């Protein structure tokens, strides 16, 4: 499966708000959304994931489920995204459909190399910048992205994440990063999806490093 250059990571104060925001993102032209629920029961996660699958199916938008690979399989989402504290991708792979993809979170070059060895389909490399909620994490910035991109020998798409705005996109692509994942900036203004998509498709850098449709 081709990995979209723009990932919308869902936000919301309630699970239902996540759904509303996924609907808005799809309406605004998102090609891929990640349902990112925390601290909910498996039953609730499954309920929301089913509803998200209906929304994304209607708009022909790809759906990734964060962390819960069993729910990703149940709702036939396009894939699952595993964070560093989640189960190992090599354990998950046999339980998924052959066409489902696995993404993984990385903070360092070593993380990326480990995920590549475990044959994930894409990597979210974070944080580009630190958010107001999490200022303790060491940020990678353009220099970190450049260093890691240059050191990695892989055809796997590397997706940048961490308080990214439209002002950052062109410079990020020039580092060799393939695409971006966005949460705050899109949730604040769903119309920004059009601008993000324009910027991501305007640069040839991503196409040189990786093959996209």
Give your account of this protein's structure.
The protein is built from ten helices and eight strands. It has about 210 residues and is α/β, with parallel strands linked by helices. It has an eight-stranded parallel beta barrel with strand order 1-2-3-4-5-6-7-8, surrounded by four helices. Helix 1 runs parallel beside helix 2 (about 40-60).
Describe the protein's topology.
Layout: E1 6-9, H1 15-27, E2 32-35, H2 42-59, E3 62-66, H3 69-74, E4 79-82, H4 89-92, E5 101-106, H5 109-117, E6 122-125, H6 141-151, E7 158-161, H7 169-173, E8 179-182, H8 184-188, H9 192-202, H10 205-209
Parallel strand pairs: 1-2, 1-8, 2-3, 3-4, 4-5, 5-6, 6-7, 7-8
Helix pairs in contact: 1-2
What's the average pLDDT? 93
The largest β sheet comes out as: 8 strands, parallel, barrel
| Beta-strand percent range | 15-25%
Estimate the global geometry from the Cα principal axes.
globular
Unreliable parts: 204-213
Question: Distance between termini?
Answer: 10 Å
Structural class: alpha/beta
Report the count of strand segments: 8
Q: Strand arrangement, largest sheet?
A: 1-2-3-4-5-6-7-8
User: Roughly what percent helix?
Assistant: 40-55%
**What value does the Rg take, in angstroms?**
16 Å
Number of helices: 10
| Helix-strand topology string | EHEHEHEHEHEHEHEHHH
Distinctive features:
213 residues, alpha/beta, eight-stranded parallel beta barrel, 8 strands, 41% helix
Offer a quick outline of the entry.
By secondary structure, the chain is of the alpha/beta class.
